[in-house]
Amino acid sequence: MSGPIEKVSIIVSKGSLEGIYPGLIMANGARAEGIEANVFFTFFGLDAISRKRHEHIKVASVGNPGLHMATIIGALPGMPGLMTAYMERKMGKLDIPPIPEFIEMIADTGAGLYGCQASCDLFGLTKDDLIDQVTGIITVGEFYALSAGGQIIFT
Amino acid sequence: MPDVSYDGQTVSVNDEGFFTDPSQWTEDMAPQIAKAEGIDHLTDRHWQVIRFMRHEYQAKGTGPSVRALAKTSGVPVKELYQLFPKGPAKLAAKIAGIPKPRGCI
Q1: Residue in B77, B79, B83, B91 to test binding to A, most A beta-carbons within 10 Å
Q2: DSSP label at A150?
Q3: Which end of chain B has fewer CB within 10 Å, C or N?
Q4: Nearest to B63, CA basis, from B82, B38, B84, B44
Q5: Per-domain residue ranges for chain B?
Q6: Interface contact A124, partner B, CB < 8 A
């Protein structure tokens, strides 16, 4: 394939703050460049579109070398909340929206948001458990069909 | 850098078609640039965004990203994408004769 990218399908498979944001930034950035975008949430990525959990996404504070912090400190009670609050404050200063607002914005740009059927079955979720902006719950085969002609980005 | 002609005047643009000298832009050029980008008619709402982009460029030295544009221009994200389907901040900047805004959000 040569020439500019016209379409991307982004998979969000992680449920931590730092695991979810990259996919969202890729999706929003794609739309801002006029690139068609779909986002597919699977496994713990479903937390980002789950009514119950999407406002409670945390930074992974244990075994996360990227934090440059001893794991034993990260395991202390309250650390995930503390690290998350710290990150959210820093991101707020850069006008990076919190996850629920960001996802709503991405939906407003016209990107498709999808839940993974297998993961929904695994966690016992139906469309009612997911936020309004979700276009539908699809299987991996349907995801591949949807992604045809474009690039697939796994996060 | 190629030269292009809008409204009977020659302006210089970069490889992506953005003005290299925003002071060369006049309002009459906007509809022509828009048409080349697939927007046949500029409504008042389009103009609201275009004027806002120019204003921000003049005030801050750079055009806003989509999020900043939606928050401060009074035109929400959904409508921005309806007015400028292929990337509002990028397209509106091109039509407004300012450089492409650089931002990730």
Answers
A1: B77
A2: S
A3: N
A4: B84
A5: 3-95
A6: no
Could you state, in order of their start, the residue ranges of all structural domains in chain A? 7-60+98-154
Please state, in angstroms and rounded to a whole number, the distance separating the CA atoms of residues B86 and A33.
7
The answer to whether the beta carbons of residues B87 and A29 sit under 8 Å apart is: no
Cβ separation of B76 and A97 shorter than 8 Å? no
The residue written with tokens 């949807």 in the block is A146
CATH of domain A7-60+98-154: 3.40.1260.10
Contact B17, B87 (CB under 8 A): no
A97: Cβ contacts below 8 Å, ≥ 6 apart: A105, B67, B105
Entry pTM: 0.94
- Split at pLDDT 50, 70, 90, the class of B1 is low
Picking from A21, A24, A28 by the largest number of B CB atoms within 10 A of its own CB, the best residue to mutate is A28
Residue A1 has pLDDT above 70, yes or no: no
pLDDT digits (tens, 9 = 90+) for A26-52: 999 999 999 999 999 999 999 999 999
Instruction: Output the pLDDT for position B26.
Output: 94
CATH no., domain B3-95:
1.10.10.370
